[in-house]
Design goal:
Elements lengths: L10 H13 L17 E5 L11 H19 L3 E5 L1 E2 L3 H16 L8 H26 L9 E2 L3 H16 L3 E11 L4 E3 L4 E23 L2 E10 L10 E4 L6 H4 L3 E3 L6 E6 L13 H5 L4 E3 L5 H10 L25 H6 L4 H14 L3 E14 L7 E10 L9 H4 L14 H10 L4 E3 L3 H10 L4 E2 L1 E2 L10 E4 L7 H4 L5 E7 L2 E7 L5 H9 L3 E2 L3 E2 L1 H5 L2 H4 L8 H6 L4 E5 L3 H16 L6 E5 L1 E4 L15 H8 L1 H10 L6 E4 L2 E4 L5 E4 L3 H20 L16 H22 L4 H26 L3 H22 L4 H14 L32 H23 L7 E6 L2 H9 L1 H8 L1 E7 L9 E5 L2 E5 L5 H27 L1 H6 L2 H29 L1
Parallel strand pairs: 1-2, 3-4, 9-11, 15-24, 23-24, 25-26, 29-30
Antiparallel strand pairs: 5-6, 5-14, 7-8, 7-13, 9-12, 10-11, 14-16, 17-22, 18-20, 18-21, 19-20, 27-28, 29-32, 31-32
The chain binds one RNA strand through strand 7, strand 8, strand 12, helix 8 and strand 13.
Length: about 1000
RNA sequence: GGGCGAUUAGCUCAGUUGGCUAGAGCGCACGGAUCACACCCGUGAGGUCACAGGUUCGAGUCCUGUAUCGCCCACCA
């Protein structure tokens, strides 16, 4: 029989066949609507993976969940777009490429021309982009591959230029001289979010600064003040000593001057509230360590910068961009030999030298251990240097006049965020409930961040990225070339820089002629590139062709859901909402689903350095893509982390790799699905939809349809609520426990009976079809593979009068099951439950008495109603309990030599099987269990407060329960009595 | 320092708005080459729900506190 499925489930073969099928038609490539109002679209935009490396298991989880959502909606016949692509990931990618070039060729970035180096990064990008897309396809992601984008491709670049110009025109982009988080290793500025705080075991050094003139305080002459610092090397740039105005010594000291050691600079003592008063008893660590005197270094400390601004202090930068001590960047009085000696030293080297100098000069008063938080670069992991630098910023809390009408003006309630500022545009939808986080708790992260948002530094001292479209020329209001003179598209601002006033110009996008004329006239383009997140922020609409009003944008924007990890809620999610509102006028998605982070078996993050990561392709090789997806989805509840035990494995080709025994769960399920389907199809020979008559269905047919109906509506509701584990376990139970363990087992008998075969075949084909549909979002390959075969064997799978046939060419575009609610029948489900309990009881006795496969006879003494049910279905009991015959009646006598057990109130007799001791033990145990339950229920009902205050249905339930216990107890006692006779 | 979370069977986790004798998979024990599947079938054992208080007729679930673990955020005197 050619239609038969292969004997063993082979993921590789099925995955290849199915991928070919999906590629053969535009199943995942929706046409934009032609403006029809009733077109329901559903859009997910992929979080574009960085082209730094191949995807890891976290990506596999992320994309599995997106694919589940998108397939679910596609089957619900939405016009479904899953937009794929990759991110250029500025710093990260440039860093890996630099590292590789250094390792392989011994060359540094600066050994290349800019374009040549970018070419090298581009080559890396091409390689990894292909790898990533290949991985996504291997996982079964149903992305619209024809629309694949890259954050630096022409379409996205156009959006970047358009948005930059728009921001510039709105006066939101400005040149700021600021203390930035400078990474001396990569020599680039990091956003606050890119700084990792680590606890460092450091010291407080207590340094004495001599007063220019000794002063009398409380009758004592003092000739110095002592400052406590964790960063002695910055003292070279001190421009004041601050003390709290409330300090008793302040009256005598404020206004005095100290002579800065090493440098010889005279600096004032000033009063500032910021200074913490010393207090050795305080809980506040700073108060315990404080001397009351704070050295103020505006160029090298953010707090000191603030103090410097308040007191108009000079700003003296004593470091070069590489973190070495230098007099070339604003330090003009490095004339003393001691100061000269320090020039060129690395900052940490200089720290030691300076401390040593103070020690030698007897000016080092004390050194105390101090553990404190130090910001490190998330990229190079070296300590961040607060560094004074010219950077481009985006003003995030500045009201945007022309947006006041659409988005409102004034502060958002309870915040200092204007509704028509960029931060406000992102915050308001959350406050209004239009933007929703799942799980809800993550909305706090988003909200807190936006409420405390500071301006966004967007310059990056890199080559890989979108180059900043600003040209500059020295001088205030430098004249523009003629070609640009009349163009209203040009914005110009002037700013002070280290070299004096400069004029900046941002030509409108699409005016290459103006750019050329600017350069011809001696204007120079900014060397820096934009922060990666600048282009990522536009991803939901840049990919659809914004700023053009494309049909895609009209059809698929705003999108529906963003699915991502919690670590980029602030960096990315908030900025997409911000820019979506700002550029397109609407939020890019309504729901943000935040999934768990995958950890290893010990709760550690998976990482390259720990060697505990799992490559999705390895999992696909070892277990199959569906198995991996099944396992990942089944572990996705709304917890923050999921643990995935990691086990080493040797591949056939000898490679040592990591995989996880957890994937066995998914593989076993797929294997079961394959074999159950194979069995079903073996039994579908002669399948004829016309042979179905609903009136001829037996109780197992009606039962499985009832279970199916309940399952499909629960699964649908769960997916609507972004639950992944729950629908999968519902389906697992339905498929494995209901369908395979019971329905199929009973169907085996019916398939041999010509009178029943046609009905059983139709129901079986129908239920299998529906199971495949419901499982398809989770395990798309195997279900599609089986569906294709099933369509050959049993085309047109409907049930006349119950559900019309609605076969599709491919499962992936078939209708999502719905509309079986009328089949739910709780009476039938209860009857089958009783039958199952009875069968289990017989099997248990077989086990206990070692009568595995002998033919036996059984009977039961059951309450009248129960006896009727059991007799009606005695054949079902006999079939699966392997009984010759089974009869029930009220008051049926116990045969001699019968093993007995209790199924609820029913006394079950399995004939000619005896072991008195075992029997006694078992019945005693049953009795104890019943008594325990009975006692608990009695206790409840004896409590007046319970009877009076609990909900009536709960009390009624308890009463009914108690009656059952009493009946059961009576029955078990009777059995025990008989046994003891 | 602030915020968020976790703690339920040997392991990984479910447990809806408080309400039957707290569930699943794996693992374990026992039995099974039966004609879909040994990646399988059948049966079973296994839990003072981290700890201490409180609210309630009733708490794994709500509140307070403690302990342990994790993540995010925060200007390094």
């Amino acid at each position: 029989m050619t239609e038969q499925l292969a004997k063993a489930y082979d993921p590789q073969t099925v995955e290849a066949q199915v991928n070919a099928l999906w590629a053969s038609a535009p199943y995942f490539h929706p046409a934009p609507s032609d403006g029809a109002a009733d077109c329901k679209a559903y859009t997910i935009v992929i979080p574009p993976p960085n082209v730094t490396a191949a995807l890891h298991l976290g990506h596999a989880l992320n994309n599995t969940l997106q694919d589940i959502l998108i397939r679910f909606r596609r089957m619900q016949q939405f016009r479904t777009l899953w937009m794929p692509g990759t991110d250029h990931a500025g710093i990260a990618t440039q860093t890996v490429v630099e590292k590789r070039i250094l390792a392989e060729e011994g060359k540094r970035r600066t050994d290349f021309e800019r374009d040549a180096f970018i070419g090298r990064v581009q080559a890396w990008k091409d390689e990894y982009e292909a790898t990533i897309i290949g991985q996504l396809k291997a996982m079964g992601c149903s992305c619209d591959w024809q629309r694949t984008r890259f954050t630096m491709d022409d379409v996205c670049a156009k959006a970047v230029r358009a948005n930059f110009f728009k921001l510039f025109k709105d006066g939101l982009i400005y040149r700021g001289k600021r203390l930035v988080n400078w990474d001396p290793a990569t020599q680039t500025v990091l956003a606050d979010d890119e700084v990792e705080h680590e606890t460092v075991q450091g010291h407080f050094w207590y340094l004495r600064y001599p007063l220019a003139t000794p002063v009398e305080v409380d009758g004592r002459q003092i000739d110095h003040v002592t400052v406590a610092t964790t960063r002695p090397e910055t003292m070279l740039g001190d421009t004041a000593i601050a003390m709290n105005p409330g300090d008793p010594r302040a009256a005598a000291l404020v206004g005095q001057r100290v002579r800065l050691p090493i440098v010889g600079r005279l600096i004032p003592i000033i009063a500032d509230e910021h200074v913490v008063l010393p207090n050795p008893e305080s809980d506040d660590e700073k108060a315990r360590f404080s001397t009351g005197f704070l050295k103020v270094t505006p160029a090298h400390d953010p707090d000191d910068w603030q103090i410097g601004q308040r007191h108009d202090l000079p700003i003296i930068n004593v470091m070069a961009p590489d973190g070495s001590i230098s007099d070339k960047y604003g330090w003009e009085d490095a004339t003393e030999p001691e100061a000269q000696n320090l020039l060129g030293m690395d900052r940490f080297e200089a720290r030691e030298a300076i401390v040593e100098w103070f020690r030698q000069e007897k000016l080092l008063e004390d050194v105390r251990d101090y553990a404190h938080e130090v910001g490190h670069s998330y990229r190079s992991h070296v300590p961040i240097e607060p560094y004074l630098s010219d950077q481009w910023y985006i003003a995030v809390k500045k009201p945007i006049e022309h947006l006041a009408e659409k988005f409102g003006a004034g502060l958002i309630e309870g915040t200092d965020v204007p509704a028509n500022s960029l931060a406000g545009l992102a915050l308001k939808p959350l406050v209004d409930g239009r933007l929703q986080f799942i799980p809800e708790r993550y909305s706090k992260t988003y909200q807190n961040w936006l409420e405390n948002l500071r301006d966004w530094p967007i310059s990056r001292q890199l080559w890989w990225g979108h180059r900043i479209p600003i040209w500059s020329k020295a001088g205030r209001d430098a004249p523009l070339p003629d070609q640009c003179a009349g163009a209203d598209a040009i914005q110009s601002i002037s700013a002070e820089s280290d070299e004096g006033p400069v004029t900046f110009v941002c030509p409108a996008p699409g005016h290459e002629d103006q750019e050329a004329s600017l350069e011809a006239a001696g204007w120079i383009r900014d060397n820096d590139v934009l922060d990666t997140w600048f282009s990522s922020a536009l991803w939901p609409f840049s990919t659809m062709g914004w700023p053009e009003e494309t049909p895609e944008l009209k059809t698929f924007y705003p999108g529906d859901v963003l699915c991502t990890a919690r670590e980029i809620i602030t960096l990315w999610v908030s900025r997409m909402v911000m820019m979506g509102q700002y550029c397109v006028g609407d939020i890019p998605f309504k729901d943000v689903y935040i999934h768990a982070m995958i950890q290893d078996g010990q709760g550690r993050k998976m990482s390259k350095s720990l060697g505990n990561g799992i490559d999705p392709l390895v999992a696909i090789d070892s277990h199959g893509a569906d198995a991996m997806r099944f396992t990942l989805a089944s572990m996705t509840t709304d917890t923050q982390d999921i643990r995935m035990p990691v086990a080493p494995m040797t591949l056939p080709d000898g490679r040592e790799v990591n995989t996880s025994p957890k994937f066995d769960v998914g593989r076993n399920f797929c294997n079961k699905l394959w074999n159950a389907s194979r069995f079903a199809m073996m039994n579908l020979e002669g399948f004829d939809p016309a042979g179905f008559d609903a009136a001829r269905m037996d109780v197992t047919d009606r039962w499985i349809l009832s279970r199916l109906a309940a399952t499909q509506s629960e699964v649908t509701a769960a997916l609507d609520a972004f639950k992944f584990s729950e629908p999968l376990s519902l389906l697992y139970r339905f498929f494995w426990n209901d369908l395979c363990d019971w329905y199929l087992e009973w169907a085996k008998f019916r398939m041999r009976d010509e009178a029943q075969k046609a009905t059983a075949q139709n129901v079986l084909a129908f239920v299998l079809d529906r199971v495949l549909r419901l499982l398809h979002p989770f395990v798309p390959f195997i279900t599609e593979g089986i569906y294709q075969k099933l369509s050959e064997v049993a085309p047109g799978r409907g049930l006349t009068g119950i559900a019309p046939a609605d076969a599709a060419q491919a499962l992936t575009v078939s209708q999502w099951p719905a509309g079986l609610d009328g089949q739910i029948d709780s009476d039938i489900e209860e009857e089958i439950r009783v039958v199952q309990e009875t069968i289990r009881a017989v099997r248990d006795i077989r086990n206990k008495y070692n009568k595995a496969s002998e033919s036996l006879t059984a009977s039961a003494d059951a309450p009248e109603a129960m006896a009727q049910i059991l007799n009606r279905h005695s054949q079902l009991v006999c079939q699966l309990a392997l009984l010759e015959s089974f009869q029930a009646s009220q008051g049926a006598p116990k045969p001699n030599n019968a093993a007995t057990t209790l199924v609820e109130e029913t006394k079950l007799y399995v004939h000619d099987v005896i072991d008195r001791e075992a029997e006694l033990a078992r019945l005693e145990k049953q009795k104890q269990e019943i008594e325990r339950g009975k006692k608990a229920t009695e206790g409840k009902l004896a409590n007046e407060n319970f009877v009076n205050r609990a909900k009536p249905e709960v009390v009624a339930q308890a009463r009914e329960r108690l009656e059952q216990f009493q009946e059961q107890l009576k029955a078990v006692e009777a059995l025990l009595a008989e046994l003891k006779d």
